Amino acid sequence: MSREGEPSASRTSIPVLPVLQAGAIGGTCGLLYGGVSGVLRAHHPIIKSISTGIYWFAFGSSFWWLRSNILRIQFEDNATPKERIYSSVASSGLSGGAINLAMNRRFLPGLVICSMLGFVGQYSYNKLEERQARLQSEPTSTKTWAERMADSRWIPIRNLSNEQYKTMLQEKLLSVDVEIALIDDRLKELKGPGDEEPGTERLYDQNSLARKPRVLSLGTTKHLGEDFIAEFQREFDLWVLEICPRGQLKSRLEDDIKEHGPVDGFIIGPNSIPYYPFDEEVLSPLVPGCKIIASLTSGYNMFAVEWIAKQGMWLTNTLDAVAEPTADMAMFLLLAVFRNTTNAEQSARAGTWRNNLNPTHDPSGCTLGIVGLGTIGKYLAKKAAAFNLKVIYHNRTQLSADIESEYGVTYYASLHEMLAASDAVSICCPLTERTKGLIGPKEFAVMKDGAYLVNTARGPIVDEKSLIEALESGKIARAGLDVFNEEPDFNPYFKTSDKVIIQPHLAGLTDAAVRRAGRESFENRYSHDLTDPLLLLDTAPVDTATSQLPLYLHPLENAYINTRYPFLHIINMAEESINARDEKKNSDNQKRNAFAELMNPRQKRAASPPTEPKPSRLKPFKNRDSLGAYIKDPESFSASTVISHSPEFVVIHDLYPKSAVHLLILPRDPQKFFQHPFVAFEDASFLDSVRQEAARVQKQAASELRRKFGKVSALDRKRSEALDADDDGDADTVPDELPEGRDWGKEIMCGIHANPSMNHLHIHVISVDRCGHSLRHRKHYNSFSTPFFVELDAFPLAEDDKRRHPDREGYLKSDLKCWRCGRNFGNKFTQLKAHLEEEFEEWKRI
Question: Where is the HIT domain (predicted)?
Answer without folding.
Answer: 640-768
